[in-house]
Amino acid sequence: MLKVSVIGNLGHDPEMRYSAAGQPFLRFNVASNYRTRTPEGEWQDKTEWVRVTVTGTRAESLSQYLKKGSRVYVDGRLEARPWTDQQGQLRAGLEVMANQVEFMSPRTDDGGTQQVRPTPSVTDERPGATKDTIQSAERDEGDLEDFPF
By C-alpha distance, which of 52, 28, 134 is closest to 100? Predict the structure, then answer.
């Protein structure tokens, strides 16, 4: 199994669909940003996009809360998905089949989420750790009791 963890922001509102058998599934794209150095030594910002699918009752619950810009943590398995392009060519892409989706954006008064840009933590030495991810990991489970999943 290829296990994957992704932290990023939704690029658009999630798309809720149902299979021919009536099984609900939710699809969305997550953008993750990082910086790298070019061969010339200059810093360059890059964005990677990851397609995520959530199935079952979790898909229906998440569709009510996730919005464009929501910051999420996704854990799941990597899977190849075939598709046909506009020219009729068979193609394949990688997709994360989510086992776990956690909110990292604070909720707003209207029940949606607002986008948050994390500030790197100076005191934490873990690679990629940010103030938001640390607070999310340390958060009390009681904060999530109002979510139906």
Answer: 52
Per residue in 32-80, pLDDT (tens digit) is 999 999 999 999 999 999 999 999 999 999 999 999 999 999 999 999 9
Give the 3-state secondary structure of residue 113.
Answer: strand
Give the distance from CA 91 to its chain's centroid.
23
pTM, entire model: 0.66
Asked whether the beta carbons of 104 and 133 are under 8 A apart, the reply is: yes
Strand 90-103 relative to strand 3-10, pairing: unpaired
DSSP state of 61: H
Q: Which residue has the tokens 């990991």?
A: 137
